[in-house]
Specification:
Largest interface: A-B, 30 and 31 residues
Distance between the termini of chain B: 42 Å
CATH class of the largest domain in chain A: Alpha Beta
Distance between the termini of chain A: 46 Å
Number of strands of chain B: 3
Strand order of the largest sheet of chain A: 2-8-7-6-5-3-4
CATH architecture of chain B: Alpha-Beta Complex
Helix content of chain A: 25-40%
CATH architecture of the largest domain in chain A: 3-Layer(aba) Sandwich
Helix content of chain B: 40-55%
Strand order of the largest sheet of chain B: 1-2-3
Number of helices of chain A: 14
CATH class of chain B: Alpha Beta
Order of helices and strands of chain A: HEHHEHEHEHEHEHEEHEEHHEEHEEHEH
Strand content of chain A: 15-25%
Number of helices of chain B: 6
Largest sheet of chain B: 3 strands, antiparallel
Radius of gyration of chain B: 14 Å
Order of helices and strands of chain B: HEEEHHHHH
Shape of chain B: globular
CATH topology of the largest domain in chain A: Aspartate Aminotransferase, domain 2
Oligomer: heterodimer
Structural class of chain A: alpha/beta
Number of domains of chain B: 1
CATH topology of chain B: Sufe protein. Chain: A
Shape of chain A: globular
Number of strands of chain A: 15
């Protein structure tokens, strides 16, 4: 048994009688959980369940200690110099909304925010909220091979650009963006640099100090941890100077009828009872990933995407197209594809008189459902990146995305099935 | 789609490959385009109503097998029906006619043409 086959044994879902022979290729949406993570959550519930930072009794103090140790552990995992720079939230989406809300308070009409066309909706919509204040959101374009168009980026980085918020790795193209270089440009421009690390933190070594970003957001559930726990890393002085996001318990120092004062960071941003078991589970996930080694995780996924591109060539399925850089040095384990491309529909567009306009294409929904019948789970749709789909000229794609429990056999299974599906759906027109 | 009920699936694929009532018409009584921007499925349905009966119904469209086969099946069903019969048709009957187990996300594909028909009936003021 190979190392990666052994790793797969750590994930109970693959031995579950409820889904025999599952080939799970949707880790960019959410990852499966190893037994150690499930156990960590269960152990907390069975032995120490109580609220944190409140109770003056044994198990509450233990719970607080476990929660804060989790913070330290996750903090060191991403290379943060201090654990108080780490805010526990629900997920990346909540982190980016927090930033839009708090940063937005300091922006004025005419200010600009620079993002890119390859962003997830969670790094687009919160910024669009600010447009009603007269703030402009600009979108860096991509190149034909799915990289950020750096010339376009330089052009759009203006003296009015107050915030640059970019994804580290594209959830559709798999592109790994050159953030160290970009960060330098952003800071030279005196802009704030925010990184969406939802698709990078699970899959490669991340160091927020090397990136020199001001903020870095990621989700636990995509990196073998529980759902509902996410992280916002922020430089301490930035977090200190920011207005709180949600108000409530824990985030205050004093509350009187004439006003309130705030707790220290990071608790200032953790109103209400936090996801304690989530943080503990995430910490266990971090330990597990550390045990494998993030360089090994990255190399494994690089091997899988290389193998995928090789299979694509060998199978040569008619009309099959895929997206994202072919250079696997800058490509994560994400493979988005179509069998025949279906353009987005323009409502003014006239239907052709007597023809189904998608021609010989197989709709991504049909691909997903057909693969599901063979127990292969992929995602089909716009992947919460509608602007990127439209930029690529398609209404949707199917996406296979990999993680530590995937092997080359999974990819062979995918292409075997796709070849069959192509034949079933061939309309010959 | 390769599903457990192969016979039924073949029925769907046959409608998908060779849709019935496919095309447009010259002077429809009502015409409507229904579109799902999320997946790009679209159908344009044209209906000719005379003497309170569906004289003719046609559709053109694009999209997944379920959305297109469902439109084909629906137009077969509707042809020759009275307005009253049409108004009494339910979404469940439409889904039953398709006859394969669809998850909640694929049911949206199947009811696209049904929604188009509903809207046309709402728009139709009578003769």
């Amino acid at each position: 048994m190979s190392r990666w086959e052994q790793i797969k044994q750590d994930f109970p879902i693959f031995n579950s009688s409820k889904n025999s022979d599952l080939t799970y290729l949707d880790s960019a949406a959410t990852s499966q959980k190893p037994k150690c993570v499930i156990d960590a959550v269960r152990e907390f519930y069975e032995n120490y369940n109580s609220n944190v930072h409140r109770g003056i009794y044994g198990i509450s103090e233990t719970a607080t200690d476990m929660y804060e140790k989790s913070r330290e552990n996750v903090s060191s995992f991403i290379g943060s110099s201090h654990a108080n720079q780490l805010v526990f939230l629900r997920n990346t989406t909540e982190a980016l909304n927090l930033l839009s809300y708090t940063m937005g308070r300091n922006l004025v009409s005419g200010d600009e925010i620079l993002i890119s066309i390859m962003e997830h909706h969670s790094n687009i919509v919160p910024w669009q909220f600010l447009e009603e204040k007269g703030i402009k959101v600009n979108y860096t374009d991509i190149t034909a091979d799915g990289k950020l168009d750096m010339e376009d980026f330089r052009r759009k980085l203006s003296p009015r650009t107050r915030i640059v918020s970019l994804t580290h790795v594209s959830n559709l193209l798999g592109t790994i963006n050159p953030l160290v270089d970009i960060g330098r440009m952003v800071h030279d421009n005196d802009s704030i640099f925010i990184v969406d690390g939802a698709q990078s933190t699970p899959h490669m070594k991340v160091n927020v100090q090397d990136l020199d970003c001001d903020f870095f957001a990621f989700s636990g559930h995509k990196m073998l941890g529980p759902s509902g726990i996410g992280v916002l890393y922020g430089k301490e002085d930035m977090l200190e100077s920011m207005h709180p996001f949600l108000g409530g318990g824990e985030m205050i120092r004093t509350v009187t009828t004439s006003g309130s004062t705030w707790n220290d960071v990071p608790l200032k941003f953790e109103a209400g009872t936090p996801n304690i078991e989530g943080a503990i589970g995430l910490s266990a996930a971090v330990d597990y990933l550390r045990g494998i080694g993030m360089e090994n995780v990255r190399n494994h996924e690089k091997d899988l995407i290389e193998y995928t591109l090789k299979m694509e060539e060998e199978y040569a399925i008619p009309d099959m197209v895929s997206y994202g850089p072919k250079n696997t040095d800058i490509r994560g384990g994400v493979y988005s594809f179509n069998i025949g491309e279906i353009p987005p529909m323009d409502m003014d567009e006239k239907f052709r008189e007597n023809g189904v306009m998608i021609g010989s294409s197989v709709h991504p929904h049909d691909i997903s459902t057909s693969l599901d019948a063979g127990n292969v789970a992929v995602r089909s749709g716009h992947h919460c990146a509608m602007p990127l789909n439209h930029r690529l000229g398609v209404v949707a794609t199917s996406r296979a995305s990999y993680y530590v429990y995937n092997t080359r056999e999974d990819i062979e299974k995918l292409f075997d099935q796709l070849e069959k599906i192509r034949k079933v759906y061939d309309l010959g027109r | 789609m390769i599903l457990e009920d192969e016979e039924r699936m073949e029925f769907i694929m046959d409608h998908y490959r060779h849709p019935h009532n496919f095309g447009t018409m010259e002077n429809p009584t009502e015409e409507i385009t229904e579109y799902n921007p999320v997946c790009g499925d679209a159908v344009k349905v044209s209906i000719l109503i005379k003497d309170n009966m569906v004289q003719d119904i046609r559709f053109v469209g694009r999209g997944c097998s379920i959305s297109q086969a469902a439109a084909s099946i629906l137009t077969d069903e509707v042809k020759g029906k009275s307005m009253e019969e049409l108004r009494n048709m339910t979404e469940k009957e439409h889904l039953d006619r398709i006859g394969i187990r669809l998850g909640p996300s694929r049911e949206k594909c199947a009811i696209l043409s049904f929604n188009a028909l509903r809207k046309m009936l709402d728009n139709y003021g009578g003769e």
